[in-house]
Write a structure and sequence with these properties.
By secondary structure, the protein is mainly β. It is 8% helix and 38% strand. The protein has one domain (5-189). It has helices at 137-147, 186-189, and strands at residues 5-6, 16-17, 42-46, 55-60, 66-72, 77-90, 93-101, 106-116, 120-126, 154-165.
């Protein structure tokens, strides 16, 4: 069996390189049902990454979705750009659905959130080859629900540390907001003569 190497999360955050054994064509929910936790937004470093210059960018897409970019080659190359991701709950456990696509396959892989505070995110890859046999989001949910508390189905624990925080309205790829319109009467407010005595 080929090993699915996870590079990120996320927040959050693991990205698969090459064909992955643990990908489903369907997400847990469709559409996303849980609002995006804005603590996810920012720049994250993968503790296990051997290159200290590589990093992940997690940006807001809308109220329910984010997008993930992985910068490798010493932080200069966007190896994976704008991969969509969102949260789902399965038996009170939080999962991140991450959209995956390469030259040979596409779909979703799933990261169980083991711990999440303001600056540290710990996740584990859901490793179940039966995901490739699912045909609907309901089947994906049922498959994960059967194994959600079985540690044999969770591989490759990763730790991400936030190094820069975004506000919920920031996106590196969105245009900046337009400046407020000028007040046509503004100059008159500052140049009135004092009233005559």
């Amino acid at each position: 069996m080929k090993r699915c190497f996870a590079g990120l999360v996320l927040l959050l955050f693991v990205l698969c390189f090459g064909a992955c054994d643990y990908v489903s064509m369907y997400s847990i929910d469709k559409p996303a049902l849980i609002k995006m936790d804005t603590r996810m937004l920012g720049i994250w470093k993968l503790v296990e990454d051997t290159s200290l210059a590589n990093y992940f960018i997690i940006e807001r897409k809308d109220d329910y979705n984010c997008k993930i970019t992985y910068m490798n080659k010493n932080g200069e190359n966007p190896q994976f750009a704008h991969f969509p991701a969102f949260f789902s709950m399965v038996d009170s456990v939080s999962f991140l659905n991450v959209s995956y696509k390469d030259y040979n396959s596409q779909g979703f892989f799933f990261l169980k959130v083991l711990d999440f505070n303001v600056n540290v995110l710990t996740v584990a890859m859901y490793a179940d080859t039966n995901l490739s046999k699912t045909h609907t989001p309901l089947e994906v949910r049922a498959e994960i629900e059967r194994n959600v508390h079985d540690p044999r189905y969770f591989k490759d624990v990763y730790h991400l540390r936030k190094v820069f925080n975004f506000t919920s309205c920031i996106s590196l790829t969105d245009p900046p907001p337009a400046p407020p319109p000028a007040d046509d009467d503004e100059e008159h407010h500052h140049h009135h003569d004092a009233p005559a005595k």
